[in-house]
Design brief:
about 15% helix, about 210 residues, elongated, 8-stranded antiparallel barrel, mainly beta, 8 strands
Length: about 210
């Protein structure tokens, strides 16, 4: 993964034409990020679920002082790792939500730094074969989330940029067996489940800018 990221950004850096070194100060921007979520805490969630995709489209407005405000949508999908369970569990967890963001966006020539905190609310749909048998559909719960976020961008022209996107999300729900249609997680005690679910994301993004400050 590190090698691919290095090649990606070297390719962008070498292939983009140089733009004016005058300070680039976009007023508004539409952003789309596609990332890979990697489970961090909660023993059962880390062992049983594997992140496949995180998609975050958003709009951001940046003030003259580089302070930025935004809002957007979030979709995650975590797949059940069928090789790490012995109960024939299959399916996954879909997460859909909305968020607001506050942060700072600043450009230095054609290189930009965009960092801040996203605060949102999401619904989790545990669509597993066990829930289909027990509930005739997915188990659903909801929770708030907080995500510190960092974007490192390279501009392609005065209207677009591509970025490396990094984040660490804290979701305020504890991963429990009943959510996926089980009575217990073999080999995992209750004391190992009493933690919120967190994951970090790494991926790429695209921004389209509107106007200048």
């Amino acid at each position: 993964m590190r090698t691919l990221l290095t090649i990606f950004f070297l390719t962008i850096l070498l292939s983009f034409n140089s733009i004016s070194q005058a300070e680039f100060a976009p007023k508004g921007s539409f952003k789309v990020e596609i990332s890979l979520p990697n489970n961090a805490t909660n023993t059962a969630f880390r062992d049983l679920m594997q992140g496949l995709v995180c998609v975050s489209p958003s709009y951001q407005h940046t003030l003259d002082n580089t302070l930025s405000f935004g809002f957007g949508l979030r979709y995650n999908y975590f797949d059940v790792n069928e090789f790490k369970n012995t109960v024939d569990l299959a399916g996954g967890m879909h997460t859909t939500g909305v968020f607001g963001k506050i942060g700072q966006e600043k450009f230095y020539g054609n290189f930009g730094v965009d960092y801040g905190v996203r605060v949102g609310y999401s619904f989790n749909f545990f669509a597993t074969n066990k829930n289909e048998e027990l509930l005739d559909g997915p188990y659903i719960n909801d929770a708030g989330f907080v995500e510190p976020h960092l974007g490192l961008a390279l501009t392609a022209n005065e209207n677009t940029s591509f970025r490396l996107a990094l984040g660490y999300a804290f979701h305020a729900f504890e991963f429990r067996p009943n959510q996926v249609g089980l009575e217990n997680f073999a080999g995992i005690g209750d004391d190992q489940l009493n933690s919120i679910t967190t994951y970090f994301t790494i991926g790429f993004g695209y921004s389209y800018y509107f106007g200048q400050n």
